[in-house]
Amino acid sequence: MDTPRHPLPPGSGRGEAGSGGCRRCPYWAARTKLDTSDGILQEGAENSRRQLLIEAFVSAGRVDNITMVMGLHPQYLSSFWKTQYLLLRMDGPLPYHKRHYIAIMAAARHQCSYLVGLHMGEFLQVGGNPAWLQGLHCAPQKLRNLNEINKLLAHRPWLITKEHIEALLKTGENSWSLAELVQALVLLTHYHSLASFVFGCGINPEEDQDGGHGCRPPSPHSDSSPASDDSMGGSGGKDAMQEVEVLMERMKLLQESQLEEEGITQEEMATRFELEKTESLLVAPSDVADHSLQSNVLCFVEDPEFGYKDFTRRGEQAPPTFRAQDYTWEDHGYSLINRLYPDVGQLLDEKFQVVYNLTYNTIAMHCGVDTSMLRRAIWNYVHCVFGIRYDDYNYGEVNQLLERSLKIYIKTVACYPEKTTKRMYTQFWRHFKHSEKVHINLLLLEARMQAALLYALRAVTRYMT
Fold it and tell me: Rounded CA gap, 366 and 337, in Å?
C-alpha cells in the first residue's frame, strides 16, 4: 500500500475547523508558544516544521500539543506521522475502532489520561461501541485477552514468552490471527512509549479536550504546568555551565581512549554491562508522589499494582540477559514485522534510524560537536534498564557521560513515566536548550519501543519455530 507523502496527523480530527488549536501552554519547555528561540532549528528545518504544522492545521483546524512539541524536530515528526498514520488509518488486519481501543488500553497502563481521552474520542468517531468505554469489562473477550501481554509489555517485557503468544493464537471463538497480534503488539508498544514522551515533556491536554470525552486536564503535573523557565542566576548558572564543560571534556577523553581500548576482552565488556545494570538498581527518583488513578483511566486497567520491577535485584533469580546480537531488530524483528504486517516494518526502521542519527552538532552553547557517543550512551542505557546488552559496547561510557540526575530522569521516563516530575526535567543538563531535552525524550521513546518490541517479537519467533 502507498503511504501518503504528508499524511494527516492522527488524532487531529476531533476539532472543528478554525477551533483554534491550543491556548494552554503545551509543555514545560514553553511559556506561551513554541518558537525557535532555542536556536536549534536552522532555516531549512524551521521551514519544514512550519509546513508540517500548517498541514496539520489546514486538515483539522487544530494542532495537538504532541505535534507542537515534536515539531521542534521536523525530520522526526514527519517520520512519526507516517508511522502513526499507517498504524491507525491505513489498511491492516484490525478494524479501526479496535486499534483505538488498544491505544486506550496501552495508555491506561501508564495512567496517561491525555492519550486515553484522545483515543476515546477517536474510538467513537470511527464507529466504536460507546458501551466499551465504560471499562475493560465491557469490551469483547478477544480484546480483554490482550490484558496480560499489555501489562508485561508496559512494565516487564522480559517476562514475555512464546506461551503468552500461543495462548492468544490458540483456536477458538476469541483467537487472534498472527497478523492481528503483530499489529496489536506494535500498537501497544507505540502507545506505551508515547505515554513516556507525554510525561517526559510534561505535555498537557488541549483545552478543547476538556469536555468531549471526560478527560480531565492537565496531566499529573498540574501544580507546575505551565511553567516558565527557572532562573539560573549567580552560582547556579555558573555550575550549569561547568556541567556542560565537564561533559565536553569527558567526550573528548573517551574518544581519545577508544583507540587504546581496542584490545579489551569480551569478559571485561560483559563485566562492565553487569556493573552498569547493577548500579541502575540504585537509580530511582526520590521525589515521586503516588498519583491516584482517575476513574476514566482506572476502568481500563486490571491489576493496577503491577509495575516496572528492576530487571535484576540482589537475592532474586534474574532472567538471563538479552544479548542484542542474538535477536536484532535489523536481522530478525524488521523482517518478521514486514512479513506479517507489510510496510510498517519499513516505517518503524526509518523512525528508529532518524532518531538515532538525528543531530544538529550542538551541545548547549557549543557548535560543531560530534554527539554520536552521547546519543549512543542514552539509547544503550535505556536498553540496559530493560536487560538488553550489546557485546560490542563499552558500558563504562554510560557512567562517564550520563550524570546521576540524567539517569534518574531517563529511568523514570522509560520505566514508570507517570512518576515524572517537572523537577526531574529541570535538574539534569541545566544549561541545555529545551529542544535538546525534547531530543532526549525522542531517543527515550524509540529506544523503549524497540526494547519492548524485541522481547515481543522474539517470543513470536520462538512460537513460530
Answer: 40
pTM: 0.82
Write the DSSP string, 174-226: TPPPHHHHHHHHHHHHHHHHHHHHHHHTTPPPPGGGTTTT---SS-TTTTT-S
Q: Give per-10-residue mean pLDDT for the chain (465 aa).
A: 37 33 42 40 64 65 82 93 93 96 97 94 96 96 97 95 96 92 98 97 74 32 34 55 86 74 65 63 55 76 86 59 91 93 94 96 90 95 92 89 92 94 89 92 98 97 95
The count of other CB atoms within 10 Å of the CB of residue 324 is 18
362-363 and 322-323 beta bridge pairing:
unpaired
> Which residue bears the cell 497480534?
181
Give the torsion through C-alpha atoms of 188, 9, 79, 180, to 10 deg. 30
Helix (H) or strand (E) holding 323: strand 322-323
112 catalytic per annotation: yes
DSSP state, 330?
Answer: I
User: Which DSSP string corresponds to 346-376?
Assistant: HHHHHHHHHHHH---SEETTEES---HHHHH
Residue linked to cell 554510560: 398
172 CB burial (10 A radius; 0-12, 13-18, 19+):
exposed
Q: Residue 365's Cα: distance from chain center in Å?
A: 27
Would you call 27 helix, strand, or coil by DSSP? coil
As given in the structure block, the three cell numbers for residue 192 are 506505551
Give the number of other CB atoms < 10 A from CB of residue 58: 10
The dihedral over CA atoms of 43, 32, 111, 307, expressed in degrees to the nearest 10, equals 60
Residue in 22, 112, 299, 384 annotated catalytic: 112
Of the candidates 278, 333, 286, the one whose C-alpha atom is nearest the C-alpha of residue 452 is: 333
CA distance 192 to 155: 9
> Can you name the residues that pair with 363 across neighbouring β-strands?
366
| Chain mean position to CA 202 | 13
Task: Please give the Cα distance from 183 to 170 (Å, whole number).
Answer: 17
DSSP secondary structure string for all residues of 103-161 = HHHHHHHTT-HHHHHHHHHHHHHTT--GGGGG-GGGS-HHHHTTHHHHHHHHH-GGG--
Residue 327 neighbours by CB distance under 10 Å: 18
For residues 456 and 160, the answer to whether their CB atoms sit within 8 Å is yes
Which three-class secondary structure state does DSSP give residue 444?
A: helix
| Closest by CA position to 93, among listed 192, 13, 185 | 185
